Amino acid sequence: MKKILLSVLVVCVSLLAAVAQSSLPAVDKSPMDISYYPANYPVLKVQDKTTEPLLARIVYSRPKKEGRTVFGGLVEYGQVWRLGANEATEIEFYKPVTIGGKKVAKGRYTLYAIVRENSWTFIINKETDTWGSFKYNAAKDVARAEAPVQKITDVVESLAMSFEKVNGKVNLTVAWENVKTSLPISL
Length: 187
Known about the structure:
- The chain is mostly beta strands.
- It is built from 2 helices and 10 strands, in the order αβαβββββββββ.
């Protein structure tokens, strides 16, 4: 009798484990990533090595080029783009900043872009927790900034974003395919 009960128990546990594993979502084709300014802020904070306060964080999904033409193809010129894949990209400021000559209050925003061959328009929008740019509403824009495009020789396979300090300003640099541009953020 003990052997039968033990066998039934093993089968039940195995079935539960299989069901639990199958309920997990599949790995996303465009994984989510986070960049901070200052770079690696959470790690530096834990190690007590921060040298300046947290200014910004961006959360975005990283689509891949995968042999496709990105700009002017996958990402249409002149259209509002979520600046990544899946959920619209979100940027959070931990203190007030200035973008495109406009004051932007501390808080969380959605970051969109209108891509053109030689320049991009970055858009800071107060609507958050949205998918793609399907429900983009220009009436909720907080700031816009134009940025020139640089052609780069190395192909960037996955969309990449990072912050860097240049001449007292913090730039959000975006690179993908053979294009790089930067959104200036003034303190």
